[in-house]
Amino acid sequence: EGVDATTTSTFTTHELSLDQQIFPSIYPLSDTTVGTGMPVILKFDLPVKDKKSFEKHLRVTSSPKQIGSWHWYSPTEVHSRPKSYWRPGTKVSVSADLNGVPAGNGLYGQESRSASFTLGRAVVVKVNIPKKTTKVYIGGKLARTIPDSAGKPGFVTRSGHKLIMQKLRKTKMASETIGIKKQDPEYFDLEVEYAMRVTNSGEFLHAAPWNSGLFGDVNGSHGCVGLSTANARWLFNTVEIGDPVVMTGSSRGLEQGNGWTDWDLSWSTYSSGSALH
User: Fold this and answer.
1) Would residue 79 show up in a list of annotated catalytic residues for this protein?
2) Which of 71, 161, 206, 222 is catalytic?
3) Is 206 a catalytic residue?
Protein backbone atom coordinates (compact mmCIF):
# COMPACT_ATOMS: atom_id res chain seq x y z
CA GLU A 1 0.00 0.00 0.00
CA GLY A 2 2.96 2.29 -0.43
CA VAL A 3 3.99 2.15 3.24
CA ASP A 4 7.62 1.37 4.05
CA ALA A 5 8.07 -1.22 6.78
CA THR A 6 10.91 -3.15 8.35
CA THR A 7 10.65 -6.59 9.86
CA THR A 8 13.34 -8.43 11.77
CA SER A 9 13.72 -12.15 12.26
CA THR A 10 16.44 -14.16 13.93
CA PHE A 11 17.53 -17.76 13.76
CA THR A 12 20.42 -19.86 14.98
CA THR A 13 22.35 -22.74 13.48
CA HIS A 14 24.34 -25.45 15.16
CA GLU A 15 27.38 -27.33 13.98
CA LEU A 16 26.75 -30.94 12.96
CA SER A 17 29.12 -33.79 13.67
CA LEU A 18 29.78 -36.31 10.92
CA ASP A 19 27.47 -38.68 12.79
CA GLN A 20 24.62 -36.24 12.08
CA GLN A 21 25.32 -35.78 8.36
CA ILE A 22 23.99 -38.09 5.66
CA PHE A 23 25.81 -38.18 2.34
CA PRO A 24 24.16 -39.68 -0.77
CA SER A 25 25.68 -41.56 -3.70
CA ILE A 26 23.98 -42.18 -7.06
CA TYR A 27 24.36 -45.07 -9.47
CA PRO A 28 24.57 -45.31 -12.50
CA LEU A 29 27.33 -42.77 -12.82
CA SER A 30 26.97 -39.79 -15.11
CA ASP A 31 27.69 -40.09 -18.82
CA THR A 32 27.31 -43.87 -18.91
CA THR A 33 25.19 -46.13 -21.12
CA VAL A 34 23.31 -48.87 -19.30
CA GLY A 35 20.81 -51.66 -19.98
CA THR A 36 17.07 -51.09 -20.19
CA GLY A 37 16.41 -52.76 -16.82
CA MET A 38 18.80 -50.53 -14.87
CA PRO A 39 17.27 -49.00 -11.72
CA VAL A 40 18.40 -45.71 -10.24
CA ILE A 41 20.19 -46.59 -7.00
CA LEU A 42 20.70 -44.12 -4.16
CA LYS A 43 22.68 -45.14 -1.10
CA PHE A 44 23.18 -43.19 2.14
CA ASP A 45 26.05 -43.57 4.58
CA LEU A 46 23.69 -43.31 7.58
CA PRO A 47 20.09 -44.52 8.03
CA VAL A 48 17.20 -42.28 7.03
CA LYS A 49 14.24 -42.36 9.41
CA ASP A 50 12.15 -39.63 7.77
CA LYS A 51 11.94 -41.29 4.36
CA LYS A 52 9.05 -39.06 3.26
CA SER A 53 11.08 -35.88 3.67
CA PHE A 54 13.98 -37.36 1.73
CA GLU A 55 11.86 -38.83 -1.04
CA LYS A 56 10.15 -35.48 -1.63
CA HIS A 57 13.57 -34.16 -2.67
CA LEU A 58 14.43 -36.99 -5.07
CA ARG A 59 13.72 -36.58 -8.78
CA VAL A 60 14.04 -38.83 -11.83
CA THR A 61 13.22 -37.28 -15.19
CA SER A 62 13.45 -39.01 -18.54
CA SER A 63 13.11 -38.20 -22.21
CA PRO A 64 10.88 -39.73 -23.43
CA LYS A 65 8.88 -39.56 -20.22
CA GLN A 66 8.02 -42.82 -18.43
CA ILE A 67 6.02 -43.59 -15.29
CA GLY A 68 8.24 -44.67 -12.40
CA SER A 69 8.39 -45.11 -8.64
CA TRP A 70 10.85 -45.15 -5.76
CA HIS A 71 11.15 -48.24 -3.59
CA TRP A 72 12.95 -48.28 -0.24
CA TYR A 73 14.96 -51.44 0.32
CA SER A 74 16.35 -50.26 3.65
CA PRO A 75 16.91 -47.00 5.59
CA THR A 76 20.19 -46.63 3.67
CA GLU A 77 19.11 -47.61 0.14
CA VAL A 78 16.32 -46.54 -2.20
CA HIS A 79 15.83 -47.46 -5.87
CA SER A 80 13.68 -46.14 -8.70
CA ARG A 81 12.56 -47.93 -11.85
CA PRO A 82 9.94 -47.34 -14.53
CA LYS A 83 6.74 -49.40 -14.75
CA SER A 84 8.17 -51.20 -17.80
CA TYR A 85 11.73 -51.49 -19.07
CA TRP A 86 13.28 -48.20 -20.13
CA ARG A 87 12.85 -47.45 -23.80
CA PRO A 88 16.12 -47.79 -25.75
CA GLY A 89 17.87 -44.45 -26.14
CA THR A 90 16.08 -42.80 -23.20
CA LYS A 91 17.98 -39.98 -21.50
CA VAL A 92 17.62 -40.03 -17.70
CA SER A 93 18.50 -37.33 -15.16
CA VAL A 94 18.57 -37.91 -11.41
CA SER A 95 18.76 -35.31 -8.65
CA ALA A 96 18.96 -35.75 -4.90
CA ASP A 97 18.45 -32.23 -3.50
CA LEU A 98 19.12 -33.27 0.08
CA ASN A 99 21.34 -30.55 1.52
CA GLY A 100 19.78 -29.55 4.84
CA VAL A 101 16.80 -31.92 4.58
CA PRO A 102 15.90 -33.45 7.97
CA ALA A 103 16.26 -37.22 8.05
CA GLY A 104 14.94 -37.76 11.58
CA ASN A 105 16.82 -38.66 14.76
CA GLY A 106 18.71 -35.36 14.56
CA LEU A 107 20.33 -36.24 11.22
CA TYR A 108 20.34 -34.05 8.11
CA GLY A 109 21.16 -34.54 4.46
CA GLN A 110 24.46 -33.04 3.35
CA GLU A 111 25.32 -32.20 -0.24
CA SER A 112 23.01 -32.41 -3.22
CA ARG A 113 23.96 -34.85 -5.95
CA SER A 114 22.90 -35.34 -9.56
CA ALA A 115 23.67 -37.70 -12.41
CA SER A 116 22.54 -38.39 -15.96
CA PHE A 117 22.82 -41.51 -18.09
CA THR A 118 21.57 -43.03 -21.35
CA LEU A 119 19.77 -46.30 -22.01
CA GLY A 120 21.29 -48.63 -24.59
CA ARG A 121 19.57 -51.05 -26.93
CA ALA A 122 16.94 -53.54 -25.76
CA VAL A 123 18.82 -56.73 -24.81
CA VAL A 124 17.11 -59.43 -22.75
CA VAL A 125 18.77 -62.71 -21.73
CA LYS A 126 16.46 -65.63 -20.95
CA VAL A 127 17.90 -68.70 -19.21
CA ASN A 128 15.76 -71.84 -19.12
CA ILE A 129 17.42 -73.77 -16.30
CA PRO A 130 15.92 -77.25 -16.88
CA LYS A 131 16.41 -77.00 -20.65
CA LYS A 132 20.07 -75.89 -20.21
CA THR A 133 19.54 -73.16 -22.77
CA THR A 134 20.19 -69.40 -22.84
CA LYS A 135 18.38 -67.28 -25.44
CA VAL A 136 19.45 -63.71 -26.15
CA TYR A 137 16.97 -61.25 -27.63
CA ILE A 138 18.02 -57.93 -29.16
CA GLY A 139 15.27 -55.49 -30.03
CA GLY A 140 12.71 -58.22 -29.34
CA LYS A 141 14.24 -60.61 -31.87
CA LEU A 142 16.11 -63.81 -31.03
CA ALA A 143 19.79 -63.13 -31.70
CA ARG A 144 21.42 -66.32 -30.39
CA THR A 145 20.52 -69.59 -28.66
CA ILE A 146 23.30 -70.84 -26.40
CA PRO A 147 23.60 -74.26 -24.72
CA ASP A 148 24.60 -73.88 -21.08
CA SER A 149 25.10 -75.70 -17.80
CA ALA A 150 23.58 -74.21 -14.63
CA GLY A 151 23.63 -75.30 -10.99
CA LYS A 152 23.57 -78.98 -10.05
CA PRO A 153 21.59 -80.50 -7.15
CA GLY A 154 22.66 -78.86 -3.91
CA PHE A 155 23.76 -75.75 -5.79
CA VAL A 156 20.60 -75.01 -7.80
CA THR A 157 20.60 -71.74 -9.75
CA ARG A 158 17.91 -69.35 -8.56
CA SER A 159 14.95 -68.58 -10.79
CA GLY A 160 14.10 -64.91 -10.95
CA HIS A 161 14.27 -61.60 -12.77
CA LYS A 162 17.92 -60.56 -12.44
CA LEU A 163 20.10 -57.84 -13.92
CA ILE A 164 23.70 -57.71 -15.11
CA MET A 165 25.44 -56.02 -12.17
CA GLN A 166 29.11 -56.30 -13.08
CA LYS A 167 31.28 -57.37 -16.01
CA LEU A 168 34.71 -58.84 -15.29
CA ARG A 169 36.99 -59.77 -18.17
CA LYS A 170 38.90 -62.09 -15.84
CA THR A 171 38.29 -62.88 -12.20
CA LYS A 172 39.18 -65.46 -9.59
CA MET A 173 36.39 -67.67 -8.27
CA ALA A 174 37.06 -69.69 -5.13
CA SER A 175 34.63 -71.98 -3.35
CA GLU A 176 35.36 -70.44 0.06
CA THR A 177 33.07 -67.56 -0.94
CA ILE A 178 30.10 -69.97 -0.91
CA GLY A 179 31.22 -71.89 2.18
CA ILE A 180 33.12 -74.78 0.55
CA LYS A 181 36.51 -75.37 2.17
CA LYS A 182 39.64 -76.98 0.71
CA GLN A 183 38.94 -80.34 2.32
CA ASP A 184 35.57 -80.61 0.55
CA PRO A 185 35.46 -82.60 -2.73
CA GLU A 186 33.41 -79.72 -4.20
CA TYR A 187 36.28 -77.28 -3.62
CA PHE A 188 37.39 -75.13 -6.56
CA ASP A 189 39.77 -72.23 -7.19
CA LEU A 190 39.65 -70.98 -10.77
CA GLU A 191 40.44 -68.00 -12.96
CA VAL A 192 37.29 -67.32 -14.95
CA GLU A 193 36.86 -65.34 -18.16
CA TYR A 194 33.95 -63.17 -19.33
CA ALA A 195 32.15 -63.15 -15.98
CA MET A 196 28.80 -61.31 -15.71
CA ARG A 197 27.46 -61.03 -12.15
CA VAL A 198 23.70 -61.28 -11.55
CA THR A 199 23.42 -61.74 -7.74
CA ASN A 200 25.26 -60.54 -4.65
CA SER A 201 25.58 -64.14 -3.51
CA GLY A 202 27.84 -65.05 -6.41
CA GLU A 203 25.80 -66.16 -9.41
CA PHE A 204 27.41 -65.27 -12.73
CA LEU A 205 27.14 -66.13 -16.37
CA HIS A 206 30.69 -66.93 -17.47
CA ALA A 207 32.98 -69.03 -19.63
CA ALA A 208 33.31 -72.56 -18.25
CA PRO A 209 35.35 -74.60 -20.74
CA TRP A 210 35.97 -77.30 -18.10
CA ASN A 211 32.23 -78.12 -18.33
CA SER A 212 32.08 -78.15 -22.14
CA GLY A 213 30.79 -81.71 -22.20
CA LEU A 214 27.76 -80.71 -20.11
CA PHE A 215 26.45 -77.76 -22.13
CA GLY A 216 22.85 -78.29 -23.19
CA ASP A 217 22.76 -81.67 -21.47
CA VAL A 218 23.53 -81.57 -17.72
CA ASN A 219 23.40 -78.87 -15.06
CA GLY A 220 26.75 -79.33 -13.34
CA SER A 221 27.90 -76.00 -11.88
CA HIS A 222 27.94 -74.61 -8.35
CA GLY A 223 25.14 -72.16 -9.21
CA CYS A 224 26.53 -70.10 -12.08
CA VAL A 225 25.45 -70.45 -15.71
CA GLY A 226 28.45 -71.80 -17.59
CA LEU A 227 28.94 -71.13 -21.31
CA SER A 228 31.55 -71.94 -23.92
CA THR A 229 34.33 -69.38 -24.09
CA ALA A 230 33.19 -68.19 -27.53
CA ASN A 231 29.58 -67.75 -26.44
CA ALA A 232 30.57 -66.11 -23.15
CA ARG A 233 32.79 -63.67 -25.06
CA TRP A 234 29.94 -62.81 -27.43
CA LEU A 235 27.47 -62.30 -24.57
CA PHE A 236 30.00 -60.25 -22.57
CA ASN A 237 30.41 -57.92 -25.54
CA THR A 238 26.64 -57.77 -26.16
CA VAL A 239 25.21 -56.89 -22.74
CA GLU A 240 25.44 -53.69 -20.73
CA ILE A 241 25.30 -53.28 -16.96
CA GLY A 242 21.57 -53.27 -16.17
CA ASP A 243 20.42 -55.60 -18.94
CA PRO A 244 17.73 -58.07 -17.76
CA VAL A 245 18.58 -61.74 -17.22
CA VAL A 246 15.38 -63.74 -16.67
CA MET A 247 16.04 -67.22 -15.25
CA THR A 248 13.20 -69.74 -15.06
CA GLY A 249 12.42 -73.35 -14.23
CA SER A 250 14.23 -74.07 -10.95
CA SER A 251 12.70 -74.74 -7.53
CA ARG A 252 14.87 -72.09 -5.89
CA GLY A 253 13.60 -68.51 -5.86
CA LEU A 254 15.49 -65.22 -5.86
CA GLU A 255 15.67 -63.46 -2.51
CA GLN A 256 14.76 -59.77 -2.53
CA GLY A 257 17.93 -57.69 -2.27
CA ASN A 258 20.17 -60.50 -3.55
CA GLY A 259 21.37 -58.32 -6.39
CA TRP A 260 19.28 -55.72 -8.19
CA THR A 261 15.97 -57.52 -7.80
CA ASP A 262 13.74 -54.56 -8.73
CA TRP A 263 12.07 -56.41 -11.62
CA ASP A 264 11.34 -59.51 -9.53
CA LEU A 265 8.50 -57.52 -7.91
CA SER A 266 5.16 -56.68 -9.50
CA TRP A 267 4.58 -53.00 -10.27
CA SER A 268 1.96 -52.69 -7.50
CA THR A 269 4.32 -54.20 -4.92
CA TYR A 270 7.23 -52.12 -6.13
CA SER A 271 5.37 -48.80 -6.12
CA SER A 272 3.96 -49.54 -2.65
CA GLY A 273 7.55 -49.42 -1.41
CA SER A 274 7.56 -45.66 -1.90
CA ALA A 275 7.38 -43.60 1.29
CA LEU A 276 4.90 -41.34 -0.52
CA HIS A 277 2.60 -44.19 -1.63
Assistant:
1) no
2) 206
3) yes
